């Protein structure tokens, strides 16, 4: 009997630890929103103004992660918050050459530019990213918070 109580206690300790692990603030996209059509991640002046306005008004925007470069974030809708500082390890959305890209910061140069990489990529992004190009950061939340908010 004491062995069973011990095993149940260990199970709950492991469960609580697992649910407390920080993960990106993302939920799966609804099945009816998944298509074989490539999403339009391009941007123009109007889209940039709309994004800036939404961030100023709400402090965050929702972005859909469609590509495979971030592994577990594929086909997820993520909360992306406006912040002032970005650090190594942060997942950010930024204005790339032709589209909006979401990748992880893996380094910062002495000049303050950011080195980014998709978690599933075996290469870093070809261009350094300036702070002005970064739109927002996908915050990390406890795993249980995602379940609570669904």
Mean pLDDT: 80
The whole-angstrom Rg is 18 Å
Based on secondary structure, the structural category is alpha+beta
Assign the CATH topology.
Umud Fragment, subunit A
Low-confidence stretches: none
Give the strand tally.
9
Across the major sheet, the strand order is 7-6-5-8
- What's the CATH C level? Mainly Beta
Describe this structure as you would to a colleague:
The protein has 150 residues and is an alpha+beta fold. It has one domain (24-148): Umud Fragment, subunit A (Ribbon), CATH 2.10.109.10. The chain is built from 3 helices and 9 strands, in the order αββαβββββββα. The chain has helices at 2-19, 45-58, 143-148; strands at 22-24, 26-28, 60-65, 76-81, 91-95, 100-108, 114-117, 134-138, 140-142. It has a 4-stranded antiparallel sheet with strand order 7-6-5-8, covered by helices on one side. The protein has a 3-stranded antiparallel sheet with strand order 2-4-3. The chain has a two-stranded antiparallel ribbon with strand order 1-9. The longest helix has 18 residues, at 2-19. The protein starts with a helix and ends with a helix. The model has no long low-confidence stretch (mean pLDDT 80).
């Amino acid at each position: 009997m004491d062995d069973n109580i011990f095993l149940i206690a260990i199970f709950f300790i492991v469960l609580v630890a697992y649910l407390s692990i920080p993960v990106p603030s993302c939920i799966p996209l609804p099945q009816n929103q998944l298509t074989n059509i490539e999403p339009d991640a391009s941007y123009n002046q109007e889209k940039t103004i709309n994004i800036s306005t939404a961030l100023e008004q709400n402090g965050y925007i929702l972005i859909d992660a469609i590509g495979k470069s971030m592994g577990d974030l594929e086909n997820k809708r993520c909360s992306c918050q406006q912040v002032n500082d970005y650090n190594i390890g942060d997942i950010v959305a930024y204005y790339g050459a032709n589209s909006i890209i979401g990748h992880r910061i893996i380094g910062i140069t002495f000049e303050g530019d950011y080195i980014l990489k998709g978690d599933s990529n075996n290469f870093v992004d070809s261009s350094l990213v300036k702070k002005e190009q970064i739109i927002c950061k996908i915050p990390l939340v406890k795993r249980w918070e995602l379940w609570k908010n669904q």
